[in-house]
Structures are given as C-alpha cells and as structure tokens.
C-alpha cells in the first residue's frame, strides 16, 4: 500500500489524514472543535437555534449563539469562465446580536474543509469579541463541503465536476457573498469587513486579503501554513515539531515512540505476532501482514493529531481529550528499554487516551482518527491538485520512520484516484510564496506547539504584516473560546489581534469620513 504525503488535518484545523497513509491533516485544520455531530452545542451555549431563510428574509436572534442559516443562490460554479451560468446553493451563517449599523463591522469567517456549523461552533473567539467590535458574524461554507455542493450528490462522482474545487474559486465565492450581504442588509453596505480563519481557513483569510484588498480591510490568519509549499520550508519541519512536543511532555516519551516502529515490525513478522498485536491494541478487525503499514500510519496520525490539539484544558475538537493530552499520553511512555510486547502494551495505553478517554469505546478502528465533520473526499482532491505540501521524516530529528518526500509517488496515486496530477508550484505562483511584502493588514498567529507553525509566518514581514507567537499554543488556540485555563500567551495574542482589528476599523472609518 502506497504512503501518501502527510496532508490531512488543515485548517482548521484543519484538521487527520488520507486513507492510504502518512498525510497530516490540513483537514480539520481546525481548523477547529466539537464532537462528530455538527449540530452539537458549544459548551458555552445554552440556547442555539438553526433557522432557514431565503436570502432576503429577516430573522430574530435569541441569546448569544443563535445564528440564521441562509442559502445564497447566486454563486457561479465557475467564476472565471464565460460559457456557463450554472449556480449552486452556498450555505452561510449570520449572527447579528451585537452588530451596530453605526460604527460596526463584519467579521467574515472564510470556511475551510468541512461543515460550516462545526467551524462556527468552534470559533469562539469571534463570538467573544463581537460585542467589543460591534460586529456582525458571518461564517461562509467552502464549496464542495458541508451542504455547499455545486453538483449535489454528484459533486464527487465525476472528475469534471471537481475541476471547480480550487482555492481561487472559493475566494471568489466569498467575494460574491460579501457583495450580496452589503447589497441586501440595510446598514452593511459601508461597513469594514475583516476576514478570519484558522488552518486552511486561515490561509484563505490571508489570501482573500491579498487578492481582494478592496473587500476586506484586514485578515486574521490563525495557524495558516501558507509557506508549507515547494521548498519554502524544510519538508521535515512539521514532524520535527510533533516530536519536540512529545519530547518536552515526558521523559523518554518520543524515544519510546521511535522504538515502537521496529517493535511492530518484529511482532508482525509472524501469524501469532499479528494475532497478539490485534489483541494488545484492542483493534476492531484482525491484522494481516498487508495492514501493518496502515497500522503504523494510523498510529503516526494519532501522534500528529495530539500535537495539534494539545490544549491546556479538556476539549473535544477531534476527540474528547483531557487537558494537555500529550502529557497524559507520555505517562505511559516513560521507558523505551522494555520488551517489544510491553512497549506495545504501553503504546496501546497511550492510544487509548486519544481514542477512548470517555471509556465508551470497545475497540479501536484504524480507519478512524477524527471528526466526521471534515470533508475527506474534498480535501483529498485538493491535496492532489494545488494544495501540495511536502512532508518527510528521517527518524533522527523526529520520532517517525524515515520517509522521503516523493512527488512522483503522490502524482501517480492522485492520477489513479482522481485522474489528475498535482501542480506543486501553483500556490506559490498564485499567492506569492514568501514574496508578499507588498500586501498589508494581515495578522499571522501561530502556536509554538502546533506542527503547522513550521510552515507559517512566525516573524514580522512589515509593520502591517505581523506575526503573533503563542508559546503555549497548539492549533489555532487563539480562535477557540476564552477559557479560565487559557495561558497568558494566548490572552496576550488575542488582545493584540483585537487591537489590530480595531485599528483597521478605525482607519476605514477615518478614510470614509475624509471622502465625505
């Protein structure tokens, strides 16, 4: 079974991995969150209403977490061609409890690879600052995810339909939606828009400000690995950060994981060993020799996901987890110098923290790692076309088995699955790579615990392209709702982000006043 380059959780946040192998997820990348049921309530919300309106309907909003759910009927399937007028229903959410027509603002979440309700529920920062910024909150769903399917149930059945699944088309959707909001909501026409997103959504927020600066006065791009392309950063930086998280969370923790791969190889070399592994790891299905690479990829993905959601409080973003989950995991991985069987029993205890912290799971399924709210099919296609992120491991600087970046291998697998081949240089051609100093008003935030920070902007580029570093932050911790256990570093980061947003809003109204 081939090993596909690490690419799945973004994001948000984003988020998990490809079905075939070692691909860290831009999938959840986040971006970002709650249990597998996208309609689940955030912990802070006691009242939650989902309403359906035609695009010009008005709504009353009850309590803090009530939003209206509209179907926007004008996005073109292809914004850049002129021989088709086909449209589709794009879903978006609007919350206006604290919005003020005089001096207000619009915070626009650039939806990533999943159900927009899930991202809405898990981007508590926007809800927390809405009153202070007098803001209307808008959460726009990304085409081909959630309910925003340009070709309905046939969206993924024909590769010709998938030709319109690109970041450029998604950004154009957002631009058209903003125009629609300003045209149809009284008081919104002359208000500043700020793009906000995490993980892949953070990349989209930054790119939206770059490509549509006349439509967004600024952008907050949280945990946005806009430089995880081509050779802009070393291909091994992602897994090196994962390893550092585990090394710092417990004595000999990363070394135990490093030694587990050979232990698995040895134990799986016989039929009795495969049977023993199945039982020791409490797997739902018996292992065969053909499953071993997939097993190791599944375990690797688990360590990656833990690094992304190593939050200072209990959370259920990808799975229900305790506070500082890597520290809890590492309690079982203190001694690498034990027998293969004991080491793998310890590995099971560590895996069980991620997959069965609630104690409700009877067996572990190596085909499942994260929430179903993320769009696996869509992200797999994007990773095979323009979102081509090189990843590699060497087993020395990291705790994983060595694996080099192999573009040809990826290309062949993409062609087999989708009938397309990746364009690894297109994102840097389209969005500039590291040559972005001509742009302005973007805050790039990154947590030092987050492996995606290796591909993010972590130093100021100009006075208005600003990097915010969160020393105790995992994947877009700053976009999550405020919590009593938040470390000081994220409190300071959020305060700085709000200060920049207030400056952008003030400058917008200052310019508007001078024009009148």
UniProtKB/TrEMBL annotation:
Subcellular location: Lysosome
Domain of life according to the entry: Eukaryota
Class of enzymatic activity (EC top level): hydrolase
Protein function: Cleaves C-terminal amino acids linked to proline in peptides such as angiotensin II, III and des-Arg9-bradykinin. This cleavage occurs at acidic pH, but enzymatic activity is retained with some substrates at neutral pH.
Signal peptide (UniProt feature, chain positions): 1-21
Catalyzed reactions per annotation: Cleavage of a -Pro-|-Xaa bond to release a C-terminal amino acid
Entry keywords, A to Z: Carboxypeptidase, Disulfide bond, Glycoprotein, Hydrolase, Lysosome, Protease, Signal, Zymogen
Pfam families reported in the protein's UniProt record: Peptidase_S28
GO molecular-function term, one example from the UniProt record: dipeptidyl-peptidase activity
Entry-linked Gene3D superfamilies: alpha/beta hydrolase, Serine carboxypeptidase S28, SKS domain
InterPro entries attached to this UniProt entry: AB_hydrolase_fold (IPR029058), Peptidase_S28 (IPR008758), Ser_carbopepase_S28_SKS (IPR042269)
Main localization of the protein described in the UniProt heading: other
Example of a GO biological process term: angiotensin maturation
Record's subunit section: Homodimer.
UniProt name for this protein: Lysosomal Pro-X carboxypeptidase
EC nos: 3.4.16.2
One GO CC term, this protein: extracellular region
Family: Belongs to the peptidase S28 family.
Entry-linked SUPFAM superfamilies: alpha/beta-Hydrolases
